[in-house]
Structure formats: C-alpha cells, structure tokens
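Dear Dr. V.,

Thank you for agreeing to look over these. As mentioned in my earlier message, I'm a first-year student in the group and I'm still getting used to reading structure tokens, so any feedback on how I've presented them would be very welcome. I ran two proteins. I've put each sequence directly above its structure. The first is here:
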Amino acid sequence: MLNLAQSLPLPFLASSNSKPKARNAFDLTPPMRAIVGLAATAMSLAVAYAVTRGLLGIAPDHAATRHLAVVIHVATVIPAIPLGGFLLLAPKGTPMHKQLGKFWVALMVTTALSAIFIKTSGSFSFIHIFIPMTLWASYKLIATARRGDMKGHKKEILSLYLGALMIPGIVSMALPGRLMNVWLFG
C-alpha cells in the first residue's frame, strides 16, 4: 500500500517512525516553524474571510476595488501568503520547491510594483516603505540561492515573508478605511 507521507513531500504528513534527517543550512528551527506556520495560517484565514465577505457583498463596497493597481495588488498578494508559508515549511531543493519559489518571487515583485500606483489621498503612505524592501529582498534571495548560500537565502526569505508580507498585511487589516480592514470588519 502506498504511504501518503512518502508520495507527498509535505512536512506535516511525515510519519513519526521515519528516521530524522540531518539539518541543513535552510532548515527552520522548531520555534521558527511554529511562527511561520501560525503566521501563514492566521493570515491566510483572515484574508480568505475578508475576500469572501467582499466578493459576496456582505462587507461594504470599497472604492479601491475599482482601481486596477489595487486589483492586481490584491490578486497577487493573496496567493503569496499561503504559498510562501508552504515553501518555508516544505522540503527544500526539490524541483517543485524551485519552480514554486520562482512563482512566489514573481508574485511578490508584482505585488510590490503594483503598490507604487496605489496612493492614499494622492501621495505615498508609510506602508510604501515595503516596496523597496520587497524588491531588494527578492533580488537578494535569488542571488543567494544562485550562489548556493542557503544560510543567506534563508535570512532573505524569512525577512521577505515575515517582514515584507506579514507586517503590511497586518497593517492593512488594522488601519480603518483600508480595503482589507473594511472587508474584514465592515
């Protein structure tokens, strides 16, 4: 009989009787795995709830949904949340990890570039500081991966995921009047 844990490379399906593998430079510590898992799950659920409310018309209408930059921004950031969490928790170095990682970076870069065209009252806000941070971290994580510097790659991907994705996500949900705040609490 086929063992599901052997057929799917998902860390949470690994059987308890499997031999522990040696840690490599990218393995996350158990506390960091818990932080990433909790952040990915909580943010994914909150965004799914907010978007469902917005699309079903349960939440109040928001003018931002009529702006192409906002639509692109939301459409690229939503899948980046669970995908980034999955990539951080799943086995590294596999062909699937590499392909999904490239797709995730493309989502993050598109999210950041679209944010350039989103302005509050015609000007940039403090949250726009995450645009250059995202672009720089995206470049660095690609460069470190190509060099084989997995310790540097880990640092960049964690800063990009937790710093440039989770923090602005929390801010967008917490600030009254922002799309995610209105859809989540309105």
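The second protein is here, in the same arrangement:
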Amino acid sequence: MTQVREDFREILRLVRPSARVLDVGCGEGELLELLKSEKAIDGQGLEISPAGVSACLARGLAVVQGDGDRDLDHFPTRAFDYAILSKTLQQMREPRHVLSELLRIAEYAIVSVPNFGHWRMRASLMTRGRMPETRALPDPWWSTPNIHLCTLRDFTDLCADLDLRIDACAALSGGQPARPMDPQNWVENWRAETALFLLSRRTEADPAAVPKDLFGEVTLPGAEAPSPKRRGRR
C-alpha cells in the first residue's frame, strides 16, 4: 500500500465530503486522487508542469495547465469550497496575491508552509553559516524552487494583514502525526517544522481569529462560534 503523506492525511480530515476542491500546484495528482477516493469530492487541479498535467490526466483527474501566480485571477469568485496549496506558497512570485486569491475563489483555503524559524534552521545558520538543508527544505540554495521562505510568525502576520481568519493550525514534522497548535504561541515558531493552516475570510459578525482543533473527522466551525481574544506575541 502506498504511504500517504502526513499533510495529505490532515487535509483529508479537513475537507467536507462532496466538496468542490481546487488543488493549486497539484503535481501528479496524488492528493486529488486521495480526496476523490475518500471524500468523493468534485476536484480540479492547476499545475504548471506538462509532466504533472499528463500524470493527472492518466489518473482520470480534471486538471488544467497554468501558473498559480497568474491564472488564479481567471477563476470565478466562490467557484470552490476549498482551495489547497500544499508546500507551494514559498515558490510563488507573489505569495501575498496568491493567498488573497485563494480566499476569493474558495470559502476556505488549506495552506501548508515550511517554517524557516524552526530550531534546526536557526541552529544550522548559527553553526554552519550556510543556508540550511533540512527535512522540510532539503534542496541546496542554488537549486531550490523556494524563493519566498518565511517563518511561522511571518505567515501569521501576513494573514492578519490580509484580514484572514485562522480556523485551525497543525505542526508537521518528519512524517510524524500532525500536532494541533496555536500559531500565536511564540514557542511554536521554534518547534514547528512545517505548519498547515485552514483559513477563511473574517466577517463582521466574527472578526477575530479563532484557532481550533479541527483535526480529525469534524464539522467545520460556524459563524456562531465564540471569538476569544487573540493571544499576544513575544
């Protein structure tokens, strides 16, 4: 049996059955195929690589060749329930624009990013004085596709700046089971190797970010959920 990536397992748990899903940078379609099999989604992929598009078509998946930096603008507003960007935001030329577009075309965005503030990154820079190569970021600086690396705090600051709500967040590390976390806790900027977020737009009725443990087969939060005050950063 094929080993399922741990971030894919958590995405699977977050997505509602029969939802409309756009997977941006879908690669060869592993995640879309898993979601179709397990959640009977109405899925579509957007992939820049011709080889990736061909692999998706061979799996019987709906996919179009396109660039997430430019082509998200062409999708209608609220065309999907979920837009997924798995370990790809840091490769985008315009990550701020891409993140904003994900939540224009979908009710929820599921985004995972490697955390450049993780302790292994800090230790490597301190002791070796070179760009780190870790499990989350294994490529040398001269061949990496990553052009906009960020820390956990950088990402949560961007979400606040874009007025996005963090509905759930989990830390992922080395294939271990996902660990739900509060991304506002300063310790997590050291501990989380990769972070996976469930994001939505804030509303006037529910303006505050509400971190929740949504990982597991659960019902997504409604607008009536309480809105505790955000915790301060250090």
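From my reading of the second output: The CA atoms of residues 209 and 230 lie 7 Å apart. The chain is about 30% helix and 20% strand. Does that match how you would interpret it?

Kind regards,
E.
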